[in-house]
Amino acid sequence: MKIKNIKKEYENITIQDKFNENEFLKYSLEKKFGYIMKIIEKYTNKKLYDHQIQASEDLYNNKAIDLATGGGKSLASIIPLILKTLENNKVSYFISINEFLLKRDFNEFKKIYEYFGIKISFLFKDFDTTSNKQIVYTTNSFLISNYLNNFVSLNKTISIDIKNSYFLIDEADMVLIDNALYPFVLHTTQPLNQEYLIDIYNYTKDLTTNDYTIKEHNYYLTENTIENLNKNFENFDINSLVFSIENCLYVLNNYKKDIDYIIEDNIIFSINPKTGLKEVLNTKDYTKQFITLKEGLELEKIEKVIIDKISVQSFFKSIDNKAAMSGTTIHESKYFTFYGFDISKIKSSFKDIKKIYPTKIYYNTRQKIINLLKDIEKLNERPILITTNNIKSAELIFNTLKEYYQNNEKILSILTAKNIEDDFNLIQKMGNKNTITVSTQIAGRGIDIPINDEIEKIGGLHVMLFEVNNGFRIDEQLIGRTGRQGKNGSVQFYYSLEDPLLVYYLNDKLKNIFYRLNLKEDDVIESRIITKQIKQTQMKQEQLEYQMFENMANFSLVLDDSRNNIHSLITENKNCNDYNQLLKKIMFNILDLYEKPQEKIDFFETLGVKLVDLEIKEYYQKEKKIIENLNRFILENLSEKDVKTIIHQVILVYYIKFLKNCDIVQEGITWRSRANKDPIIEFKKEVFNMFEITLKNIRVDCFVNCFKNIQFRLEKQKKQEK
């Protein structure tokens, strides 16, 4: 489509007081776009710019768009959401990671959708299971949780049609990349073995550097240490124990309060290093429990057990009708290609006039703060946003500023994962005169800081990036807080040799430069060559993260067939209208597992069916009759609801065991990789064999449990009669 044709339709079209869907669906695509643009203007007083129209078209065509931060992606998403919902007559989903911003867009655009007769739901509240003409604004966690819950729950739940519905992913780099390093899991609970974990923690605390090695940030016990574990532990699984001790070592040496996690009301939350958002810490490796012991808190009495899981990669890769939008799509193109997207770069209608000053590099953090304060003084009344990459640094700068500006000549505020839920309204004031806001990376996500004409005239918002971030993408998001839509703004980077990323990659190199140039501690370096080297360290970190992403994807893809098979069994059972046929199918599947007739006869005897006097040659003639009699016996003594419940419970029990065993195998795969074996191939072999056994056990126990249930009822009935 040509944008000029869409704009022409927009100018000429007359909107109706009452929407006529049948007439609308007959319009050309250009006219549909123009009509929706008219309704957007009616309810928001906003016109779409050319770049937003182009973005809408690309999103409608299932592309991943790259549109600079501040380009108005939320507004551009409305057209494809409406068109896909009406044309497909299927539920559409708008997905983001930030619940606060999601709610903002939901409330702002609600009336637009309602005009088109589309129901709208926030986090599946008021979701209408009878209507397809519906748009759901949801976080990725709510979406995947509902998707999995539909399979594991026997009751009717919200069904998510990933094959036909339309999924539009906002903040796609966060949803598809940052949140893809761990699988999404659905939990139930069981008692926690506190004594076992306390023993591991106390044992690990006393280990010395002679007991383990460190390779690429990971901790590995030495062969000698592993051989001597039986002196300290009894009745343990070696793979699981070694994995837990190595993870405990990592927690003790690397996890830092107010950097990697925070504690609120004695609850531990992890901090996402890319976004600064707090997240519930529920991992299978006891990280939360080891942090709890490290902080001297009381262990919970229960632990969460995985009943189903899926990786972000597997979930979104299986969706065909999807689109994505981000401000850094091109930079992260390999990720989006992995998910099957075509990528479109959208050129903004506005000229970017913000100033980015040369990077300042200092010897240490103290000198960086001193010079930061000096630079603040030069900015006079302009609003300032200072960003850090952890809460500890943010609080250090905020407290320093409070001491420095004791006469209240500056309005100071702090924005971190600790207070964003309570003080989200302070964002509206961050662009006011004489305002200084200190924030973690949380400020770089979807936050639109209002700037009035007075502030625009004096230079707009000034952003100070206080530390080297783990990737170029985070820098871009933070830079995007200022100079939005062609307005004034400026950016300054402040680095020091004590920044964690530089300590790890470039510390000695940069120190040598300081010495060679005979620089003092309070001197500053402004060098394009060094800045380029720092960017290269960020690229190294990004490459490391992509390897982790690929590793996660490879392991999770191995489990996809198994999970899909289990989901098919559950769905078949939930939707069954003829249990006689289903039981026959299960029984014949069981008998197919046995090659010899005697093995089949032995199986029947485990059910209590006596076939001892049956000749082997007669067996084949009577097999069908035996199965029919068994099915009739089950269905005469159990209701279809009882059979449905028994089958469902059997499937889940064995699936939970299967997932737990897969985790144990994956933990032990490390040992095989040390023996120069491909861990993915080894994992695939183990999973295949375990799943064959799991399927066999499910089929057999469906019948065994039905017979046990009947036997229990008959015995109970006899007792009551006596």
Please, could you describe this protein's structure?
This protein is of the alpha/beta class and 722 residues long. It folds into four domains: 3-180 and 314-346, Rossmann fold, CATH 3.40.50; 193-300, Pre-protein croslinking domain of SecA (Alpha-Beta Complex); 355-526, P-loop containing nucleotide triphosphate hydrolases (Rossmann fold), CATH 3.40.50.300; 546-721, Helical scaffold and wing domains of SecA (Orthogonal Bundle), CATH 1.10.3060.10. 52% of the residues lie in helices and 14% in strands. The chain has 27 helices and 21 strands. Strands 3-4-2-5-13-1-14 form a seven-stranded parallel beta sheet. A hairpin with a 2-residue loop joins strand 9 and strand 10 (267-271). Helix 4 (50-60) runs parallel beside helix 6, helix 12 (238-254) packs across helix 13 (287-294) and helix 23 runs antiparallel to helix 25. The N and C termini lie far apart (83 Å).
**Structural class from helices and strands?**
alpha/beta
CATH topology of the largest domain: Rossmann fold
Instruction: Name the average pLDDT.
Output: 87
The CATH superfamily of the largest domain bears the name P-loop containing nucleotide triphosphate hydrolases
The dominant shape is: globular
Instruction: Give start-end ranges of low-pLDDT stretches.
Output: none
